[in-house]
C-alpha cells in the first residue's frame, strides 16, 4: 500500500477519516492524497457555472485555506500528504482519478447515527463503493482505536465473485493481514453440510490462484439473514475489519445499502472494506 486517497469535505467525519488514514499511512509507510471535488452544495450548478466557480481565484483560495486548516494535525507529522482539487460534478468520476494518481486504497467516513447509508457525501460514497476498482475502507466516527489484528472476509460462494475474492485476498496478503473466511447460512438459502462442502469445493476450484485452497478454511455461521450474520460473526470474534466483496449491485454489496443493512451497520463500529471485481 503506497497511496491512500481521502475524499474530503473538511467536515468532522472527514477529519476522523483523516486520522484513520494517517494510522494506515504510518503502518505501511504510505502517502495520503486528500481530494476535494466540487459536489454536494455545488451539484446544482451547470457545467459552465461549475467551471467558472472552480476558476474563481477567491473560491480556490478558500479551498486552499480549508486544506491548510484540515491538514494542520500533529498526527500527520512525518507523513507525506498531497492535496488535489477537481471540478467533477458527478462523484462517480472519482474512478477516473484512481489510475492517474496510482491509488491503492480509498478511505471514507460514515456518521455513527446513520449507518453506512449516512456516509459523508451521502449517496456519493455509495457511488464510489459501487464503481471503484480500488478497495474502499468505510470507517465510523466513533471508532476509538486503530488495530487490524482480526480481519474477517464474508464470502457467499457466488462464482461471479471469484475475481473479487482473489483481489481481496491479494490486497490483504500484500499488506500482511491474516484473515478468516466465513459464509452465512440462512433459513432462506439454507445449505446442508454436504451441499456446503460441494459449494466450497466448486468455488475453490474456480479460483485462478492455484495456491489458494480455501476448502478447509471457510467457517460456516448460521443466522436468520446475511446482514445479521455478517455483523454478529464480526462481533463474536471481535473483528477489527470486515471485508465485503462487491460486483456493482450484486454480491454482498447489496447488504450494506439496504435498510436492514444500514441498521446492522449502525450497531457495529467495525470498519468495512469493500472490494469490487
From TrEMBL:
Residues 1-140, 149-275 form the UspA domain. Gene3D superfamilies: HUPs. CDD domains: USP-like. Transmembrane segments: none annotated. It comes from the Bacteria. It holds the Pfam family Usp. Belongs to the universal stress protein A family. This is Universal stress protein. It comes from Christiangramia sabulilitoris. The lineage of its organism: Bacteria, Pseudomonadati, Bacteroidota, Flavobacteriia, Flavobacteriales.
